[in-house]
Amino acid sequence: MIIIKVDIIGGSLSGLSSAIILKQENKKIEVIVHEKHKKIGFNSDGRRCGEGYSLEEEWKHWKPIGGSIYSPINKVETIVDNKTYTLNRKPNTAFVLNRQAFITQLAKQADDLGVIIKTNDKIESIKELSSDYIVDASGCPSVVRRELGLKKGIVGITYQQSIENCSHFFHDTMQIYLTADSGYYWIFPRNPKKKEVNLGMGMVIRTHKNLKKQLEQFKEIYHISGTINYETGGLIPAGIQKPLIYKNIVFVGDSGVGTFPLTGEGIYRALLSGEIAARCIAHNNISEYPKIINDKFLKWDIAGKSMLRINNTFSKISEKAVFFYWKRYLDWWYSFN
Questions:
Q1: Region of 332 on the Ramachandran plot (φ > 0 left; ψ -120 to 50 alpha; else beta)
Q2: Which of 16, 44, 46, 257 has minimal Cβ neighbours within 10 Å of its Cβ?
């Protein structure tokens, strides 16, 4: 058997899921994870999202344990104008993560399997690497895509505050507020010991709006108070970022599959894309990677982007028209759930 070497740029969710599966498929594969930060997980990139995560059949094996979980979630509420839609979750199937600890959990699993993890190891150019395959898990914006001059897909933006002693803390409930301008707010219960929430706003279109100002206005409207202990934000890639492969390079996570365009969900897509890429590499068949990814995600991406376009069309009419559209859609969706 030919022993291959794989370099993975980025030690977060997609990079580590790739590393783990590569070793599980073939322990003789040499796998090196290059993490630019001094610590895996517990760094500024480790807390860049709302940290909401659900376990579904296809990726239920990527299960957070122990300190990787802050709040088990039993209920998800979606609020449109004056109407609330409630989705009840089965026990132990939805969580607000301690995402940094979850990344560390995966890193330990990778290390136990023999993956070489190099921290404080920022890759400036793919010319530094001489492996058989490169997995780009560097996030958004991708360092490899920039170097190669590859086109970017639709990119949105987020801003989030973590707030202690929050007046709007509900320990088992995630709330999502849909807006009339292709945006949404979220309130996710983070650390119950501190009555801490992740409160954020996302726009899944290019915008010049001041998201921090928008979020402060949202807090005033809903009388949300507390002490801000952490702020974060950044770009979110909406949907698949083509190409998914380039020569011997495979793009995963935010560098590849991006987030679900409608909601910005990305954790499950990161884990799954890393896993799929690893299996394709281990079987020396990376040409199958785009086909598998498209089979799993493309229809949802098309649906999400189509809804955003419709939303944008209605927004030119009135806010009332947008909310009417969202309610009709959610009435239909909840009739099946």
A1: alpha
A2: 44
234: left (phi over 0), alpha (psi -120 to 50) or beta: left
C-alpha pair distances (Å), 259 with each of 49, 139, 162, 298: 11, 11, 21, 11
Q: Cβ contacts of residue 210 below 8 Å, gap of 6+?
A: none
CATH number, position 273: 3.50.50.60
CA dist 146 and 133 (Å) reads 18
Per-residue pLDDT of the chain (337 residues; tens, 9 = 90+): 457 999 999 999 999 999 999 999 999 999 999 999 999 999 989 988 899 999 998 899 999 999 999 999 999 999 999 999 999 999 999 999 999 999 999 999 999 999 999 999 999 999 999 999 999 999 998 999 999 999 767 778 999 999 999 999 999 999 999 988 778 999 999 999 999 999 999 987 777 889 999 999 999 999 999 999 999 998 889 899 999 999 999 999 999 999 988 788 899 999 999 999 999 999 999 999 999 999 999 998 898 888 888 888 888 889 999 899 899 989 988 887 6
- 179-183: long-range contacts, CB 8 A cutoff, minimum separation 24: 180/311, 180/315, 180/319, 180/322, 180/323, 181/315, 181/322, 182/308, 182/311, 182/312, 182/315, 183/207, 183/214
Helices and strands in the chain, H and E counts: 8, 16
The CA distances from residue 332 to 42, 74, 179, 335, in Å, are 41, 22, 19, 5
Helix, strand, or coil (residue 79): strand
Domain count, the chain: 1
Indicate the SS3 state at residue 159. strand
Backbone angles phi, psi at 116, to 5 degrees: -90, 120
DSSP label of 182: S
- What amino acid is encoded at 269 in this protein? R
Look up residue 18 and give its DSSP letter.
Answer: H
The range of the structural domain enclosing residue 93 comes to 5-334
d(CA 267, CA 42): 17
